[in-house]
Amino acid sequence: MINIQHIHHSFTIGKKGRENEIKVLKDVSLTVEKGEIACVVGRSGSGKSTLLNLISGYIAPTKGKIVIDGTDVTAFSEKEWAMFRLENFGFIFQSFQLIPSLTTFENIELPLTLKGIRPAERKQKVNEMLQRVGLENHAGHYPNELSGGQQQRVSIARALILNPSIILADEPTGSLDSETEQEILQFIKQLNRERGITFIIITHDDEVASIASKKFHLADGVLKKGDETLEV
Q: What CDD domains does UniProt report for this protein, alphabetically (predicted)?
């Protein structure tokens, strides 16, 4: 499903003629199969978010190749990436990333609107999704009227609404208490089991990583699997 081949990523700082190259990822290779829950674990600054941004096409690698579901996306244009994301990815964020001026219904509906789905079909799909995530009684509520767990369920519903094959999650329980964290983790496992969705989760939390079928460790831009360094 996702094949990362010898990815490097760096950026430069400083004035022209005195630039300093900062290497963030160093020869990273990994494979995630369809239907797996893969967790990338590492401390702050290890390169986790950079790796997720590369997989989702928000930044381009300095070197290397990215193949997703058989498609080489390495050299995609911004327009190609925007379409590819809409067709293949759902996103879950630590800070929920809900639009405060939109209701629960409207936040979940937004990807359907962006894709040009007709209003009647949007209404049906959103109502079905509200029931799926247990928020049918909160359709008219705004984000500030919901608990943290409810807001994350809205975020998950929005990620699911276009039926993506891959969900990328950035510290999905980082803003939640331990009880709500367990609730969300169980929900992710259920979605993976019932729908076969591939999850890539970045986290520094061992509790979150415990649900993974495959676990990777990032340290100083080098990817490890268990105790085995995957650096070539």
A: ABC_MJ0796_LolCDE_FtsE
